[in-house]
Amino acid sequence: MNNVHGVKGAITSENNSVTSIMDASAELLNTLIKKNKIIQEDVAAVFFTTSPDLNAEFPARAAREIIKWNNVPLMCGHEMNKKDALQKCIRILILWNTKKNQGEISHAYLKKASTLRPDIS
Hints:
The chain has 121 residues and is α/β, with parallel strands linked by helices. The protein is 21% helix and 29% strand.
């Protein structure tokens, strides 16, 4: 029986541009997909958030256009505007139907986002 588990990750974008946000989002998604061997048919939904300073593009666009996840529900939002929070940060939460236990799932924190979870970066 499959259970729904979360696969999480974060990455920083070089700047607030369409290209930079798309590239960073695709890099993080590809990393999570490869580390966990995720296939589109097993993904229930994906949530993307960005720090408030990133608004040039929706990170979900990378999932649709680069990763080709055309049948996965995707949603974007902004993180809280907390003082001293990591800037230019994209976070992803994949809700994945899998037989793996939560402890077997690999998460990814790339670039400057590695400071968010040094224990698993």
